[in-house]
Amino acid sequence: MVLPARSGAEAADTGSTGDRLRRIQTLTDTELTRLGVDEMLVELLERVRDLLEVDTVAVLLLDPSATYLIATATSGLEEETLQGVRIPIGRGFAGRIAAERRPVVIDEVDHSNVLNPILREKGIRSLLGVPLMVAGDVLGVLHVGTLVPRSFTADDAELLQLAADRVAMTTRARMTEAERSAAAALQRSLLPARLPVVPGLELAARYVPGGGGEVGGDWYDVFDLPSGRLCVVVGDVVGRGLEASIAMGRLRGAVRAYALLTEDPGELLRRLDVQVQHFERDVMATVLCAVVEVDQSVAWVASAGHPPPVRALSGGGGELVEMTIDPPIGLTPARRRRTGTVELPAGACLVLYTDGLVERRRESLDVGLRRLTEAVRSGPAEQVCIRIMGLLIGNEPSADDVALLVVTRPDDGATEPLRLVEPAVPRSLRPVRQALRSYLGGVGASAEETSDLVLAVGEACANVVEHAYGPGGGLLEVHLEMHGRKVSATVRDTGAWREARGANRGRGTTLMHGLVDEVHVERDATGTRVVLEKTLGGGS
Question: What is the rounded distance in angstroms from the CA atom of residue 413 to the CA atom of residue 160?
Answer without folding.
Answer: 77
